[in-house]
Specification:
The chain is mostly helical. It has twelve helices and no strands. It has helices at about 1-25, 35-50, 50-65, 70-85, 90-100, 110-120, 125-130, 140-155, 165-190, 195-210, 215-230, 230-245.
């Protein structure tokens, strides 16, 4: 009987040993780990398939495990786009700022600036504003200013960039949006009888956003403000500017200022 018990124990020990050895052989930690190249290919495949959440997860893993590889650097650039398309706006801005700060001479740093501009450009009004048709020209355009500056960096510093033309077109739209807001504030000051403030905001709209359609309204506000303040000389000068640019038929006739084609201010 003793021998039988011993035999059973031996068999049990042997089975446990086999299970242990087999488990060790299949433990995930002993499996070959993917290289940076393999991880990048996996992430890029997810990105091309519009699986932005999956791509982000792999890109973040790659940059954490292999931070000093070329694939990690490219992943940081791809992450900006992935965050942007996934709607993670703050992460996209942070990733763009980090890439620009750490890679100021990278050949694709213009892309980081462009996506940064796109993030703020596409920050749409919330559902209540859309429902009640809120006039966005009356809203402080904080994101519009940030977007304008990002696009301006692309146009000014990287004029040969493939994103320069699109950045310029978006700058024109944003310029008009920002000028409209300044004119709206100037009109508010006029209604309150704050003529100095009205003249200053109207002048700001013209100086900072020259060429915007609201320039005409801004000049009208300046003329009215100067008349109310008794500043006859300034009112006369502003009328002359108005006549030069718009005349009697309202057609713009702004003279060439000799600035580069992309200068809007």
């Amino acid at each position: 009987m003793f021998a039988t018990v011993s035999a059973r124990r031996a068999v049990l020990i042997l089975l446990l040993a086999c299970a242990f050895v087999g488990g060790c052989k299949t433990h995930p930690r002993n499996k070959p780990q993917p290289s940076p190249e393999q991880l990048y290919k996996q992430a890029h495949k997810r990105l091309d398939s519009y699986d932005y959440k999956g791509a982000i997860k792999i890109y973040e893993n790659l940059t954490a495990r292999f931070p000093f590889t070329e694939q990690a650097r490219q992943s940081r650039l791809d992450l900006i786009y992935a965050y942007y398309r996934e709607g993670e706006t703050e992460s996209a801005i942070d990733a763009a700022d980090t890439f620009i700060r750490e890679n100021p001479t990278h050949p694709r740093v213009d892309y980081a600036w462009y996506i940064k501009g796109m993030v703020d450009f596409e920050r749409a009004p919330n559902i209540m504003e859309r429902l009640f048709h809120t006039d966005l020209t009356k809203r402080p355009p904080t994101n519009a200013r940030k977007s304008f500056e990002a696009f301006r960096t692309v146009v000014e510093q990287y004029p040969k960039s493939e994103y320069a033309h699109d950045s310029l077109q978006r700058m024109i739209y944003l310029r008009n949006r920002l000028a409209d807001y300044e004119v709206h504030v100037a009109e508010y000051y006029m209604r309150r009888g704050a003529y100095v403030g009205a003249a200053q905001r109207a002048n700001r709209a013209i100086e900072e956003y020259d060429g915007a359609p609201s320039t005409r309204k801004a000049l009208q506000i300046m003329i009215a403000s100067y008349d109310k303040l008794g500043l006859d000389d300034r009112a006369r000068e502003t009328r002359d500017v108005y006549a030069l640019n718009f005349g009697n038929n309202g057609q713009t006739q702004v003279a060439d200022r000799g600035r580069p084609w992309w200068k809007l201010w």
